Every structure is written in C-alpha cells, then in structure tokens.
C-alpha cells in the first residue's frame, strides 16, 4: 500500500516577490526548492496546519489567504498531496531552522531554481496569474 501524505505550502508574497525555501540536504528531495510548510496533523484544517508550520519552520507568522493549487505527486517514499495557499507575512522575518536557504524571487524568475516536483504546478499557476498583471 502506498503511503499518502497531505501537506500544505505557503506562497508568501511581499513587495512583488515570492519566498522560496531550499530543502536541507538530509531528508526527502534534498536541496530542491519548495514553498515552506509541512504535514497536516490529525484534527487540523489545512490553513491551521500552514499557520503552525510557518511558525515552526520560519519563526514568523502568516495570515493564510486563497488557495493557489492542489497537486498529488508520487515520490519514491509515497504520494504527497500538496495544497498551496497565498499567505501574508504579518509578524517577523523568516529564520532558517529547517531549510538551508531562502530567496525572494519575482514570479517571472521562479523557474530559475530547481523545484521539488510537487511544487511545480503552484509555480506555474503563480507565473500565469502574475503574467497578466
């Protein structure tokens, strides 16, 4: 039986640029870029999980807005269903606790880094949305 993992990711946009987080070298998809977030715990809504994960991973607070994308991707360790949401940074600045780097990129620059496969549909959606603005 394939392991199923439900996760959430934060598309944090500030001053027209998007926060991108590089995964550490240990663990799944090492060194690839992602929207920060994590697993949804039992009893949490996706939005509650995302608020908690951003506090834990980046030591800052966000307000979760509209959904960007929801994607299922089969990795060698299981099927990850990633739901991403636009978020507003409302307290603090990102601190690296689990990631090895962060970048702030314009939506048009998002494809200049190597994304984890589950995050690519959200990247595409963001680029389409901001190309029309």
What does this structure look like?
With 133 residues, the chain is an alpha+beta fold. It contains 2 helices and 7 strands. It has a single domain (4-131), classed as Nucleoside Triphosphate Pyrophosphohydrolase (Alpha-Beta Complex), CATH 3.90.79.10. It has helices at residues 46-58, 120-131, and strands at residues 4-14, 17-23, 33-34, 37-39, 61-75, 78-91, 99-105. Strands 1, 2, 3, 4, 5, 6 and 7 form a 7-stranded mixed β-sheet that branches. A hairpin with a 2-residue loop joins β1 and β2 (17-23). The longest helix is centred in the middle third of the chain and has 13 residues, at 46-58. The protein is globular. The model has no long low-confidence stretch (mean pLDDT 95).
Topology:
Blueprint: E1 4-14, E2 17-23, E3 33-34, E4 37-39, H1 46-58, E5 61-75, E6 78-91, E7 99-105, H2 120-131
Tell me the count of domains. 1
Number of strands: 7
Gyration radius, rounded:
14 Å
Order of helices and strands: EEEEHEEEH
Helix vs. strand class: alpha+beta
Q: At the first level of CATH, what is the class?
A: Alpha Beta
User: Spans with pLDDT under 50 lasting ≥5 residues?
Assistant: none
Binned strand content: 35-45%
* Corresponding CATH superfamily: Nucleoside Triphosphate Pyrophosphohydrolase
- Through-space gap between termini: 44 Å
The share of residues in helices is 10-25%
CATH architecture: Alpha-Beta Complex
State the helix count.
Answer: 2
Main sheet overview? 7 strands, mixed
Q: How much is the average pLDDT?
A: 95
CATH topology: Nucleoside Triphosphate Pyrophosphohydrolase
Assign an overall shape: globular
């Amino acid at each position: 039986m394939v392991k199923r993992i439900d996760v959430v990711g934060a598309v944090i946009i500030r001053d027209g640029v998007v926060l991108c987080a590089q995964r550490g070298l240990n663990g799944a998809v090492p060194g690839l870029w992602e929207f920060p977030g994590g697993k949804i715990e039992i009893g949490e809504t996706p939005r509650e999980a995302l608020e908690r994960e951003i506090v834990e991973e980046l030591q800052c607070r966000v307000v979760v807005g509209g959904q960007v994308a929801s994607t299922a991707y089969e990795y060698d360790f299981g099927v990850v269903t990633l739901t991403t949401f636009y978020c507003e940074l409302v307290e603090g600045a990102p601190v690296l606790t689990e990631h090895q780097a962060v970048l702030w990129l314009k939506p048009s620059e998002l494809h200049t880094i190597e994304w984890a496969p589950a995050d690519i549909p959200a990247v595409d959606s963001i680029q389409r949305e901001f190309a029309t603005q």
